[in-house]
């Protein structure tokens, strides 16, 4: 209490500006969270500039209609209406023309701002308007009076109450307005409510940072909190704390340097944002750089598996693996460590071998590579480019894509170099039934159903068949029945016969 008493006696003139600044910083930071989530930062700038026309309108209304000087309430109402009109005009131009929202904002807010400046410069109207343009631009928190204090308190209370009562609606419309509309949330009404809140905080913040810099009070603390937290409720609390902290730090920095508080407060907030941008624990530049430095590209891990799979040895020296991969040694060794942790590789001294899971993954990659080579060969790619192009494409090994290519190519057995293309073992293991066109020679299967009526008398559900050899350059399939009869099938017919393989090894 003694310290508080001494501070009050020595700095009594600072109490009111600090209280007003704290309240306004709280309100601006809370609203700013929803503004940046909706990517409407430019819109808050438009509302701030449109304020000039609103304040001028308030002066003229009170003087010309009522013969009295404008008070804070009239100017606040005029600025609020100017913000709503600006947003309405932006929406109207966007809906009825080809002009995009950002262009419409740029046109409307500069036009409305110019309208206010034009009215001030007119000799016939300028005599009724008493606006300190310098302090209107850079702010004048030191000179706030009781009316500004009450306005700041009411605006802050209103903003906090709105966020608490309509948090769910604001959250839904900020992240997914389509889903919000589908469950009955009045999206347009919520948008206009947020616009009104933005107008209020901008108007109340002009005395602190001025019409140009007030946008920083709304955006900068919220942007800093956005880099620190993923949950909206935590982001709002953090933004409020950051906004208040930056206001106090900037205010006392300006007081010590003998400068204007508005720019100093904004500089402090910007400095905090830049520090957060660099040092944020999850989304900071340093963490991101370290993450990318330590990350192992999936392509390198897949190349390691492929190099070991292609080797004829069970245990492959690490140096042999490194020689077959076009990357630096540290990344390759980190890839090996990752693969061992994922139980895809076993290590014994300086040698590696594939686990059963690793061999499965390697076979899947090898199949993708050879199918891509076959596809590129069919498309006319020069022979000397097949391997390199397929090596790039094999990492796009989405199972559905590879299955689609395999089917369009007619399920080839060999690649252009004469190497065997591994079978589609994934579908055989994960599905209860597959098309018989996937059945390789020597494997036994049980027929599940036959969709081609011309084959139903020779191939019946429940019958056991053996995959026969392919003929006519691989475009004819054959199934051998239990009585030794061979049924030849075209590609379409083989696709119409669904089987379930009963043996994992060829007969």
Describe it.
It is a single chain. With 507 residues, the chain is an alpha+beta fold. It has four domains: 18-288, Orthogonal Bundle (ABC transporter involved in vitamin B12 uptake, BtuC), CATH 1.10.3470; 298-354, Arc Repressor Mutant, subunit A, CATH 1.10.10; 357-422, Arc Repressor Mutant, subunit A; 431-507, SH3 type barrels, CATH 2.30.30. The chain is 66% helix and 7% strand. It is built from 22 helices and nine strands. It has helices spanning 2-10, 12-37, 41-66, 72-96, 101-121, 123-126, 133-138, 146-165, 167-175, 177-182, 187-228, 232-257, 261-279, 285-294, 298-310, 318-323, 329-341, 356-378, 383-393, 399-408, 425-430, 491-495, and strands spanning 316-317, 345-348, 351-354, 434-435, 444-450, 464-467, 477-481, 486-489, 497-501. The strands form two sheets. The protein has a six-stranded antiparallel sheet with strand order 4-9-5-6-7-8. Strands 1-3-2 form a three-stranded antiparallel sheet. Strand 2 (345-348) and strand 3 form a beta hairpin. Helix 4 (72-96) packs across helix 11. The radius of gyration is 36 Å and the shape is elongated. The termini are far apart. The model has no long low-confidence stretch (mean pLDDT 81).
């Amino acid at each position: 209490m003694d310290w508080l008493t001494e501070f009050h006696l020595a700095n009594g003139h600072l109490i009111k500006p600090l209280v007003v600044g704290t309240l306004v910083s709280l309100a601006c930071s809370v609203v700013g969270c929803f503004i940046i989530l909706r990517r409407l930062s430019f819109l808050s700038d438009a509302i701030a500039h449109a304020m000039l026309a609103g304040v001028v309108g308030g002066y003229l209304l009170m003087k010309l209609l009522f013969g009295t000087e404008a008070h804070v309430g009239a100017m606040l109402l005029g600025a609020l209406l100017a913000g709503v009109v600006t947003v309405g005009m932006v929406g109207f131009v966007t809906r009825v023309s080809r002009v995009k929202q950002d262009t419409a904002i740029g046109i409307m807010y500069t036009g409305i701002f110019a309208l206010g400046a034009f009215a001030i410069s007119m000799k016939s109207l300028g005599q009724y308007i008493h606006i300190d343009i310098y302090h209107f631009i850079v702010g004048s928190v030191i000179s706030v009076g009781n009316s500004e204090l009450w306005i700041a308190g009411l605006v802050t209370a209103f903003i906090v109450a709105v966020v608490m009562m309509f948090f769910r609606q604001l959250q839904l419309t900020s992240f997914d307005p389509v889903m919000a509309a589908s469950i009955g949330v009045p999206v347009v009404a919520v948008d206009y409510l947020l616009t009104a809140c933005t107008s209020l905080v901008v108007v109340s913040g002009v005395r602190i940072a001025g019409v140009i810099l007030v946008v920083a009070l709304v955006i900068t603390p919220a942007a800093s909190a956005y880099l620190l937290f993923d949950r909206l409720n935590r982001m709002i609390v953090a933004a409020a704390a950051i906004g208040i902290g930056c206001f106090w730090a900037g205010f006392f920095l300006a007081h010590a340097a003998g400068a204007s508080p508005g720019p100093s407060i904004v500089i402090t907030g910007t400095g905090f944002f830049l520090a957060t941008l660099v040092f944020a624990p999850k989304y900071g530049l340093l963490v991101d750089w370290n993450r990318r430095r330590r990350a192992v590209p999936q392509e390198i891990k897949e190349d390691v598996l492929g190099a070991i799979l292609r080797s004829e040895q069970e245990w492959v020296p690490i140096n042999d693996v490194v020689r077959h991969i076009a990357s630096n040694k540290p990344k390759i060794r980190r890839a090996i460590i990752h693969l061992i942790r994922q139980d895809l590789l076993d290590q014994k001294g300086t040698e590696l071998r594939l686990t059963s899971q690793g061999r499965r993954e390697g076979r899947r990659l090898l199949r993708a590579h050879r199918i891509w080579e076959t596809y590129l060969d069919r498309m006319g790619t020069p022979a000397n480019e097949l391997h390199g192009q397929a090596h790039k494409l094999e990492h796009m090994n989405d199972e559905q894509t590879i299955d689609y290519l395999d089917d369009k190519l007619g399920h080839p057995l060999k690649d252009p170099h004469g190497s065997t293309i591994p079978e589609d073992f994934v579908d055989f293991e994960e599905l209860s039934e597959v098309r018989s066109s996937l059945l390789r020679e020597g494997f036994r299967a049980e027929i599940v159903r036959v969709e081609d009526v011309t084959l139903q008398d020779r191939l019946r559900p429940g019958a056991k068949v053996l995959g026969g050899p392919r003929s006519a350059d691989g475009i004819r399939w054959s199934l051998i029945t239990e009585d030794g009869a061979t049924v030849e099938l075209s590609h379409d017919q083989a696709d119409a016969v669904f089987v379930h393989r009963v043996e994992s090894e060829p007969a």
